[in-house]
Every structure is written in structure tokens, then in C-alpha cells.
């Protein structure tokens, strides 16, 4: 079965993609009759060397995203994963020559089709008297034994674009740029890894991987790699990649060792989430620095993709100060990142947290709750939430992310860890305030914020008194905060429904002679009934409000969790005979 793609036609997708880039970038122009993009200010290059690159489409933003002052003059694009036509390459060479450039350097990735087509265009252009040189970039570090075809051209090619572009912008001649680029190309390597393949529009995936497999050393055209390894953590995968890239027994290795200074590129092959890319980048920086390698610059993003391939490539380029100046040189290319011109290694990455404000004296501290009872209540609540994790997640899947149980379990474990550190505050106001801060920090998600709001507001009335009317007022304050900031109201199918129902019953605590257990029992029963009633409600707030009510035939998980917490508190207090 062919994969789904958002294209107009399979045949025209490469043309449409390039046209879209040019349409949104006033600094680019299309060369009429060819799949070629050029700088719109070609006339400003008179007397300088032009840089042309390209290859098959499907590697976006490479190569057209790197057209601009300080990088490429133009790009010739082929169909998806197909070398560009000789005629288009020659037309691009003629166009930049006629604009008054003093020579053209072709930067070509080491693939047979690219070498042949760019090479033939170069020969024809030279026959016409146009000075043209060509560098073939092979930065693949996958193969431990050198193949006759040589190392494949991968993401490191983008660094060559940058170095050559900086030299050309500085007015360096064609021969010197060619020689210097060839030297730089020998000091870098790239290795890729992928969780699965990609698929050319109109075709099936190029290879299949089982759930527990990862492809190591693959190319950028969906071709299989050098080996398959078992799925592992990001740290383990990155360590394996760097070991392979730098091992002296590997003929295509990068000679990186302790004391080396490198530029690191972490390249998304197209389908990884930003979250995963960040994790990989962190692992790469930590691993390299742990080996004594200085990371002079780190570039993280999508530079040379393989359509939607969910994978990553790491590129290492050995650098010195003169080469770093070329990497740092200004460019207007849209896909080149805004990289800080300072070393990554050696920079302080953490800042001390602000000091907590001193707590104001609490007049209710002497009236504090018995600590053993407080600890028991919180421990039982934690046990309840941990036991409900799968049930709450199942209820939450109907509304989207299915993590309500996980979030509440995270809160429970955070509270358990906090209780192990020492006794909680005896003051009810301080207890609720501390719990609020803990949940805001550890629970996460909207639930953490909502519980934090509720507890912060509920703590305020308890600073003056801790009798039953004060606890009722605390409930009122918490509910008011939930409605003010959470934008939910009773009947919106949220945790507020359970808490609101309980809060209405707790109003009775404000009456003289109110009975603690009678009122609390009614409050818990009302909360449980309200939680069950949410399955008949149309969601008016939260993520569930975006889901059709016809699909929501289970109670709201937040309301169920809130009711369960209240039930646990009641049962513990009853067992203690408060």
C-alpha cells in the first residue's frame, strides 16, 4: 500500500515544492523552463565566484533552503531522489556566468547520478569557455571498509555550502575555494540512524523494520544501512553512533579524540519530533564532552532530510579558529540556523534558582492537625491514585491524550517522596501551600496547574482559623480560583463538577453545631454522583471540549479522580475516629 502524501500530483511534486519556496522568499527566483532556483540579486555577484549545488528533491530544506548571501548562488533540483537533468545544470551555470561571475564551483554529493550529470554539465560549460570546478563531497562514516564508489554525500555537505559561501562572499578565487573546501571535506563525517524507512510519493516504503529494530548507517534516499540493531535508549544509540564514527578501525572514521574541537550537527531526517531531536542533541553533547571533545558550535534542526524518515544523523567537523570564522560568517540563507558565535563547551548551562521567600508567621500553627493523621491521609490518597492510574488513563483516551492517570500517579509519587524527606507542616495553610508548590512542579499538565491553583487559594482562609467554617471557606476559595483561571463552570464535564458538588454540601459547615462527618459524607456522595453524571454532559472546557459529545460516553477522569480523593479522605478520618 502506498503511503499518503499531501501533494497535487506525484509527477509535479518536486516542481510545486520548489515553486512554494520561491513564492515565499523574495530573495529567490526560478529559472524559466528549468527546476532551478537562483538568488534574485545575481547582478550583485559580478566579479565573484558562484556556487551551485543540488540533487534529488525530498531532502528539504537542502538544497534550495541554503541559497543566499554567504552560501549558495543557486540550486538545481531533480525529481524526488533523482539526479537533476544535465540541461538544467548547464542552464544554471550559464545563468550565473552571464551575470558576470568569474567562475562557478559545483558542490556535488557523492552519488553516481549526481557525479555523472554535474560532471557532464561541467565539461560542456568548460567547452563553452566558462570556468567551472567541481567538488564531490563524501562524508558518510557508515562503512568500515571503503567501497569503490566511495563515501556517500550526506548532511555534512551543508557545512561545505557554508564554508564555500563564506569564502566566495569574501572574494576568494575559484581555485583557492576548491582547494580549501576539499581539505575541509576530509575532516568531517556523518552517520545516520532511523526507526523506519520513508516512501517516495506514489510508492511503498523502501524497507521494513520490526518494532524492536533500528537501521544504522543508512543513506538519505531510503536505502538500507550497514546493519540493524536492537531498539535502545537515545543515550545508547548516540553512544553507538559516536563510537562507530570515531573508531580508528573504521576506514571512514572522523579522527576525533580528547582535545579535538568540532562543529556538531544534529540533523532530523524528516520525521522525528522536536522532542526526540532535543533528547538526541543533549545525549550527543554530553557524550562528546565526556570524552574530552570541545564542541565549538552545535547546529540542531532539519538540514538534509529524507522525506518523512523518522531518524537522525550526526555530523562532526574538526575545526580550528579560521574555519570557525567561516562557519560564523553572515548568511541570508533561510534554512541556516541563527547559531551563537561562542563555544558550546565551557558555557555555564544552569542558573541558581531564586531563593524562596520567608514564610510569614502562621497564627494557626498551634492549632495544627495531628501529623500522624495528616501523613496517613496523604499516604492513602497516594495509594488510591496509583491504583486508579490505568482506569483514569482509559477514561482519558476518549478525550485525546490518555494521560490523566499517569499525571495523577506522578503527583502521588511526588507526594510520597516528599513525605520521606521529613514531616509535613502542621499548619493547614502551610500544608496546602507546600502541596500546591509540589504539584505545580512535579505533577505537570493542566491537572498540576489546576490542583496548584485550588490548593493555593484554599490555603488563604486557613491562615486565620482552622474551624469547620474556615474549611468551608477554603473550599469556596479553591473553587473560585478554578473557575477564574480554568474557565470551567459546573456542568462543563471537568474535575470542577465533583469539587463543586462537594463544595455545595460543605456550606453546611458554616452553620453552628454542624457535624463534621455527616456533612463530609454528603459532600463525598455528591461528588461521586457528579463525577458519574459527567458522562451525560457535553464538554464545555478542557481538551475534551474539542471532541464530539457522541464519543464521550464515559465519566470525566478528572472528576472521577477528585471524587476518589475526597472518598479516601473521608474513609481515613472515619477510621481514625476524628
From TrEMBL:
Domain named DhaL: residues: 372-571
EC numbers on record: 2.7.1.28, 2.7.1.29, 4.6.1.15
Alphabetized InterPro entries for the sequence: DhaK_ATP (IPR012734), DhaK_dom (IPR004006), DhaL_dom (IPR004007), DhaL_dom_sf (IPR036117), Dihydroxyacetone_Kinase (IPR050861)
Residues covered by the DhaK domain: 9-336
One Pfam family, short name: Dak2
Keyword Protein biosynthesis: no
Catalytic residues (positions): 221 (tele-hemiaminal-histidine intermediate)
Protein name per UniProt: Triokinase/FMN cyclase
Reaction(s) this enzyme catalyzes, per UniProt: FAD = riboflavin cyclic-4',5'-phosphate + AMP + H(+); dihydroxyacetone + ATP = dihydroxyacetone phosphate + ADP + H(+); D-glyceraldehyde + ATP = D-glyceraldehyde 3-phosphate + ADP + H(+)
GO biological process annotation, one example: glycerol catabolic process
Cofactor: Co(2+); Mg(2+); Mn(2+)
MF terms in GO: ATP binding; FAD-AMP lyase (cyclizing) activity; glycerone kinase activity; metal ion binding; triokinase activity
Self-association and partners: Homodimer. Interacts with IFIH1 (via the CARD domains), the interaction is inhibited by viral infection.
Summary of the function given for this chain in its UniProt record: Catalyzes both the phosphorylation of dihydroxyacetone and of glyceraldehyde, and the splitting of ribonucleoside diphosphate-X compounds among which FAD is the best substrate. Represses IFIH1-mediated cellular antiviral response.
Swiss-Prot/TrEMBL keywords: ATP-binding, Cobalt, FAD, Flavoprotein, Kinase, Lyase, Magnesium, Manganese, Metal-binding, Multifunctional enzyme, Nucleotide-binding, Phosphoprotein, Transferase
Residues the record lists as binding substrate: 56-59, 109, 114
Organism per entry: Canis lupus familiaris (Dog)
NCBIfam families named among the record's database cross-references: dak_ATP, PRK14479.1
Gene Ontology CC annotations of this record: cytosol
Amino acid at each position: 500500500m502506498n503511503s499518503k502524501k499531501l501533494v497535487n500530483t506525484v509527477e509535479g511534486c518536486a516542481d510545486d515544492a520548489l515553486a512554494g519556496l520561491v513564492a515565499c522568499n523574495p530573495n529567490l527566483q526560478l529559472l524559466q523552463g528549468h527546476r532551478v532556483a537562483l538568488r534574485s540579486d545575481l547582478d550583485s555577484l559580478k566579479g565573484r565566484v558562484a556556487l551551485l549545488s543540488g540533487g534529488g528533491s525530498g531532502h528539504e530544506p537542502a538544497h534550495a533552503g541554503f541559497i543566499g548571501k554567504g552560501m549558495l548562488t543557486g540550486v538545481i533540483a531533480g525529481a524526488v531522489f533523482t539526479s537533476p537533468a544535465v540541461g538544467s545544470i548547464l542552464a544554471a551555470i550559464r545563468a550565473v556566468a552571464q551575470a558576470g561571475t568569474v567562475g562557478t564551483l559545483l558542490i556535488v554529493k557523492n552519488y553516481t547520478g549526481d557525479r555523472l550529470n554535474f560532471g557532464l554539465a561541467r565539461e560542456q560549460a568548460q567547452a563553452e569557455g566558462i570556468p567551472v570546478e567541481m567538488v564531490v563531497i563524501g562524508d558518510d562514516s557508515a562503512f568500515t571498509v571503503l567501497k569503490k564508489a566511495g563515501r556517500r554525500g550526506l548532511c555534512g555537505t551543508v557545512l561545505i555550502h557554508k564554508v564555500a559561501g563564506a569564502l566566495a562572499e569574501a572574494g576568494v578565487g575559484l581555485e583557492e575555494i576548491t582547494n580549501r573546501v576539499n581539505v575541509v571535506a576530509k575532516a568531517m563525517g556523518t552517520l545516520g540512524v532511523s526507526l523506519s524507512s520513508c516512501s517516495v510519493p506514489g510508492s511503498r516504503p523502501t524497507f521494513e523494520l520490526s518494532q524492536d529494530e533500528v537501521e544504522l548507517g543508512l543513506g538519505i534516499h531510503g536505502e538500507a544501512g550497514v546493519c540493524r540493531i536492537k531498539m535502545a535508549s537515545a543515550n545508547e544509540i548516540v553512544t553507538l553512533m559516536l563510537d562507530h564514527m570515531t573508531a580508528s578501525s573504521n576506514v571512514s572514521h572522523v579522527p576525533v579524540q580528547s582535545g579535538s574541537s568540532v562543529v556538531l550537527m544534529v540533523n532530523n531526517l524528516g520525521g522525528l519530533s522536536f522532542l526526540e531531536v532535543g533528547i538526541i542533541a543533549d545525549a550527543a553533547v554530553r557524550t562528546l564532552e565526556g570524552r574530552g571533545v570541545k564542541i565549538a558550535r552545535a547546529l540542531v534542526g532539519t538540514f538534509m532530510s529524507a522525506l518523512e524518515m523518522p531518524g537522525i544523523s550526526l555530523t562532526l567537523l574538526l575545526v580550528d579558529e579560521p574555519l570557525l570564522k567561516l562557519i560564523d560568517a553572515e548568511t541570508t540563507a533561510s534554512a541556516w540556523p541563527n547559531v551563537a558565535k561562542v563555544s558550546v563547551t565551557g558555557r555555564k548551562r544552569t542558573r541558581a534558582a531564586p531563593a524562596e521567600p520567608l514564610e510569614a508567621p502562621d497564627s494557626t500553627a498551634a492549632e495544627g492537625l495531628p501529623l500522624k493523621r495528616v501523613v496517613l491521609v496523604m499516604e492513602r490518597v497516594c495509594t488510591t491514585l496509583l491504583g486508579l492510574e490505568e482506569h483514569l488513563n482509559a477514561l482519558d483516551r476518549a478525550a485525546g491524550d490518555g494521560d490523566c492517570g499517569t499525571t495523577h500517579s506522578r503527583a502521588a509519587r511526588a507526594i510520597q517522596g516528599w513525605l520521606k524527606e521529613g514531616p509535613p507542616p502542621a499548619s493547614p495553610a502551610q500544608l496546602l501551600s507546600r502541596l500546591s508548590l509540589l504539584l505545580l512542579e512535579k505533577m505537570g499538565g493542566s491537572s498540576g496547574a489546576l490542583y496548584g491553583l485550588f490548593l493555593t487559594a484554599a490555603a488563604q482562609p486557613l491562615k486565620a482559623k482552622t474551624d469547620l467554617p474556615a474549611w468551608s471557606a477554603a473550599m469556596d476559595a479553591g473553587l473560585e480560583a478554578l473557575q477564574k483561571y480554568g474557565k470551567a463552570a459546573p456542568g462543563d464535564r471537568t474535575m470542577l463538577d465533583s469539587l463543586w458538588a462537594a463544595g455545595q454540601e460543605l456550606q453546611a459547615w458554616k452553620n453552628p453545631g454542624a457535624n463534621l462527618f455527616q456533612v463530609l459524607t454528603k459532600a463525598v456522595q455528591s461528588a461521586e454522583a457528579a463525577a458519574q453524571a459527567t458522562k451525560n454532559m457535553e464538554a464545555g472546557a478542557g481538551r475534551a471540549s474539542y471532541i464530539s459529545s457522541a464519543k464521550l460516553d464515559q465519566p470525566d477522569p478528572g472528576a472521577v479522580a477528585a471524587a476518589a480523593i475526597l472518598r479516601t479522605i473521608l474513609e481515613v478520618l472515619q477510621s481514625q475516629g476524628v
